[in-house]
Write a structure and sequence with these properties.
The structure holds two protein chains of two kinds. Chain A is mostly helical. Chain A has helices at 11-33, 39-60, 78-98, 115-122, 130-143, 150-167, 175-207, 212-221, 226-244, 252-259, 262-287, 292-315, 320-341, 344-368, 387-390, 392-406, 412-426, 430-456, 471-489, 492-501, and strands at 371-373, 376-377, 465-466. Chain A is built from 20 helices and three strands. In chain A, strands 2-1-3 form a three-stranded antiparallel sheet, with no helix packed on it. In chain A, helix 1 (11-33) packs antiparallel against helix 2 (39-60), helix 3 (78-98) runs antiparallel to helix 5 and helix 7 crosses helix 8 (212-221). Classes of the chains: A mainly alpha, B mainly alpha.
């Protein structure tokens, strides 16, 4: 009988995660005990306060690193903390959008079109559950990129996904679409996490250990059964590639992006990608690094297909949210280039790219929430014609985000693409770089087409108008636009900061 | 008995589950197939724990059960909402998107 060892936790290093969990639980208690009238304001302030406090904690521990913060199940190091910071910044600006109550169902359980629903709208009810759900998702995202064993990784994956499945179904308008997107997201998400878990089982079978360090040792030693390793890697990668929406596993993303309430889409598109790529970078750069012969060719193929497919299909889209979804598939391909690079420059570039892309994505979806008619958001691209003449500021900020997605110089997207492609070129992945540059050119075509449509065609005479943004939405749009341009003009402070502290410890 | 046989059973269960997800049309059945896949993974974990001679795999199996229970809660909530608004839980009927 071995003696029981009581676990030691380093609370200071885990504080960002613990703060967010505490905030989420307070949110649940508010939901249970506070009266309906004060709930919205209480939830918004608790959520924003929690996220800001967690961001301060991340900043405070930015130079620490430890493999034993939670009995070896979490690694706190430079890349992990940078990604946590990125996720928190994205969540703060996304929660400003979520706080704009116009977007969410009055009572999520009421049947669409029923008297109950009309009554709850008339009484001015709103779902405030969405705030604790967001915080739980954020907590899962904070753990995902720093987890260092298979259990933590799997639990973090589910903690981040389950609230998102629910949040996708909470839209106020077009509720059937929204519920349908929740169902699709849930079924495909659960399907992919089953693959993920099966892969984890085979990695455990291969190495006899569930910790990343143990699996890494087995991969370096090369003594185990290679069939187990290959099955494990393949299935685990399917789970991760699903979360980032790379091509053979992208089927959910256009539907979910379109059906989910736009603030939720903004949060999910930006923050999930950061968390999932964070975990991917850690796994491929540390655990599987010595088995690169087996995964690099496959990931290269997936990266190329994602970039080309995403860019080509986006051209044909008539709906803004679907277009942004296909563009995010293309961006998953660009980000995979950073994983394939497998060098320090690739790691730095990926983190920079994730930050720049995440901020621009939230900004772009924030603009989508503003363009409306009497029935809700207008996402049909044709009806965006002439937006630049009616509301130049909104159209200009949307154009900024599109230029950043296209990677035009003087925006953050250019620096991101340039550094990620040069890192991949350094490591000899020339094919991906060529495909990347070509598909960037294709992508630039449809981004610029939207800009031309907004600024150089005549407005349609219909009821499309731009809502006067609430103060919170205005902050989000302004912040994203300023960051996007600032990072394009002065990228070096952030790039230096990242390259100084982004070192994986094992 | 040779533990490898359990790996074959687990792979078989996993495949049955995966095929079920692809072929069946009722959301509840699809969901049950996903649960079958998770349990197949559990069986692999337990088998590997036996083969490797440590308990880590069995611990994972417990965590998986808890996570699967949470997934049931969320999944059934979504399916019931869909059923209440459409009077059908068929995956094919839910096809308003894409149009």
């Amino acid at each position: 009988m071995t003696e029981f060892i009581s676990p030691t936790l380093s609370y200071s290093l885990l504080s960002p995660i613990l703060v967010v969990f505490a905030g989420a639980i307070i949110g649940v208690l508010i939901e249970a005990f506070a009266s309906k009238s004060i709930r919205p304001i209480a939830q918004v302030s608790v959520s924003i306060g929690t996220l800001v406090l967690a961001l301060v904690q991340v900043w405070r521990i930015r130079n620490s690193s430890s493999t034993t913060a939670a009995m070896g199940s979490v690694i706190i190091d430079g890349p992990g903390l940078l990604l946590q910071g990125t996720i928190l910044v994205i969540s703060i600006i996304a929660i400003f959008l979520i706080a704009d109550t116009e977007n969410f169902a009055a009572a999520a359980a009421a049947i669409p079109g029923s008297p109950e629903e009309r009554e709850s709208i008339a009484r001015g009810q709103q779902v405030t559950e969405v705030f604790p759900l967001t915080l739980f998702a954020v907590a899962g995202m904070l753990i995902f990129p720093v987890s260092s064993d298979l259990i933590t990784l799997f639990v973090a994956l589910e903690v981040l996904s389950l609230p998102l499945y629910l949040m996708a179904g909470l839209s106020r308008r077009r509720r059937l679409l929204s519920q349908e997107s929740a169902l699709k997201y849930f079924l495909l998400g659960a399907f992919s996490s089953a693959f993920f878990l099966f892969g984890a089982a085979y990695l455990y079978g291969y190495s006899g250990s569930i910790s990343f360090a143990g699996i890494r040792e087995a991969v370096v030693g090369g003594t185990g059964n290679d069939v187990f390793l290959l099955i494990g890697m393949a299935f685990l990668s399917i789970g991760l590639l699903f979360k980032v929406g790379a091509v053979p596993f992208h089927a959910w993303s256009p539907d979910v992006y379109q059906g989910a309430p736009t603030p939720v889409t903004a949060f999910m598109a930006a923050a999930t990608k950061v968390a999932a790529f964070g975990a991917m970078l850690r796994i491929y750069y540390t655990v599987f690094a010595n088995a690169e012969w087996s995964w690099r060719p496959l990931l290269t193929a997936i990266a190329i297909i994602s970039m080309v497919f995403g860019s080509l299909v986006a051209i044909a889209q008539r709906d803004v949210k679907r277009m942004l979804a296909y563009s995010s598939i293309a961006h998953a391909g660009f980000l995979l280039t950073g994983v394939i690079a497998l060098n320090k420059a690739g790691l730095d570039a990926s983190i920079y790219y994730l930050f720049a892309y995440g901020i621009a994505t939230v900004g772009a979806f924030a603009v989508v929430t503003l363009v409306r008619d009497s029935a809700g958001e207008v996402t049909d691209l044709n009806r965006w014609a002439g937006l630049g003449k009616r509301s130049p500021w909104v159209a200009t900020s949307f154009a900024t985000f599109l230029l950043a997605f296209a990677g035009i110089p003087l925006t953050s997207g250019f620096i991101g693409k340039f550094s990620i492609f040069s890192a991949a070129y350094e490591s000899g992945a020339t094919a991906v770089v060529i495909a990347g540059v070509l598909s960037s050119a294709i992508a630039a075509f449809f981004y610029i087409r939207v800009i031309v449509l907004m600024f150089f065609s005549d407005p349609l005479e219909d009821a499309t108008s731009v809502l006067i943004p609430s103060i919170l939405t205005r902050i989000t749009v302004l912040f994203s636009a300023v960051v996007t341009i600032f990072l394009g003009v002065f990228p070096s402070p952030l790039l230096d900061f990242i390259s100084n502290i982004a070192i994986f410890i094992r | 008995m040779n533990p490898t046989n359990y790996l074959y059973i687990s792979a078989l269960l996993f495949t049955i589950g995966a095929i079920g997800v692809v072929v069946r049309r009722n959301a509840i059945v699809v969901f049950m197939c996903i649960e079958l896949m998770l349990n197949a993974a559990n069986l692999s974990f337990v088998t590997f724990a036996r083969m490797n001679g440590n308990l880590d795999g069995q611990v994972v199996a417990f965590f998986t059960m808890v996570v699967a229970a949470c997934e049931v809660v969320v999944g059934l909530a979504i399916i019931v909402t869909i059923y209440r608004s459409r009077r059908s839980a068929s995956v094919d009927d839910a096809s308003l998107l894409r149009r």
